[in-house]
Design a protein that fits this description.
This protein has a domain of 58 residues. It is 5% helix and 0% strand. It is built from 2 helices and no strands. It is elongated.
């Protein structure tokens, strides 16, 4: 800047002096002679103390020394690490990673050895031990370690063999393999018939299939599906050669 310009402070038509600064002292990019913008940040986004707009330095720490996650030397402002434990190893509720407080008791009042803080025995006032079971081995819901009640049924209502109070398994079949309607998984009753009273071969109690024919192919009147009896004659008495029985006999 020349001597004349220094005192007269002349500006060009764009509003900048000979050194390239406007009347407020900022160049075209918005920085002053010291390299800071109007908000006090340099071209890298840091102020004079080295903090950015979010309050963190180049290493990611704020003015108090905490990182973006709120930890300083691994601990937050309350003194707990990211897992929730302080330097002594206790969480906000006062328990360590194994669930015991500084006196060695868990949140139910049991020590590591299983002794309750109040009763001084292995069971609390309600009669349950450290694992939640009473002297008979049942928890407060009435189930033992294997999940069965004193009557031998689990929460789904089935016993150790897989049957409910009525004697049916999860699929609805009893020990003999029949459901409440009396049919097995294939749909047949103890006598071997389905709901329509047909057996596995397809015959009903009278020995006929759904079309009305027995195992030999004859209906209730003794005729096959072509209309002939066992001797080969139809109801009119003719055979397939259109001859009557008496005519054949006379031949």
């Amino acid at each position: 800047m020349g001597l004349l310009d220094r005192f007269s402070r002349t500006f060009d038509k764009y509003g900048y002096d000979l050194d390239g600064y406007d009347k407020d002292g900022y160049d075209k990019k918005g920085f002053n002679k010291n390299g800071y913008d109007k908000k006090g940040f340099n071209k890298n986004g840091y102020d004079k103390k080295g903090f950015n707009k979010n309050g963190y330095d180049k290493k990611g720490y704020d003015k108090k020394g905490y990182d973006k996650k709120g930890y300083k030397d691994g601990y937050d402002e309350d003194g707990f690490d990211f897992k929730g434990y302080n330097k002594e190893g206790f969480n906000k509720n006062g328990y360590d990673k194994k669930g015991y407080d500084k006196d060695g008791y868990d949140n139910r009042g049991f020590s590591i050895d299983g002794i309750h803080i109040d009763t001084k025995i292995a069971f609390n006032e309600d009669g349950f031990n450290k694992n939640g079971y009473d002297k008979k081995g049942f928890n407060k819901n009435g189930y033992d370690k294997k999940g069965y009640t004193k009557d031998g049924f689990n929460k789904n209502g089935f016993n150790k063999n897989g049957y409910d109070l009525d004697g049916y398994d999860k699929k609805g079949f009893n020990k003999d393999g029949f459901n409440k309607d009396g049919y097995d998984e294939n749909g047949y009753d103890s006598n071997g018939y389905d709901e329509d009273e047909y057996n596995q071969e397809g015959y009903n109690l009278d020995g006929y299939d759904e079309n009305g024919y027995d195992s030999n192919g004859y209906d209730g009147l003794g005729y096959d599906h072509l209309g002939y009896d066992k001797e080969g004659y139809n109801q009119e008495g003719y055979n397939k050669f259109n001859k009557k029985k008496n005519e054949v006999d006379s031949d």
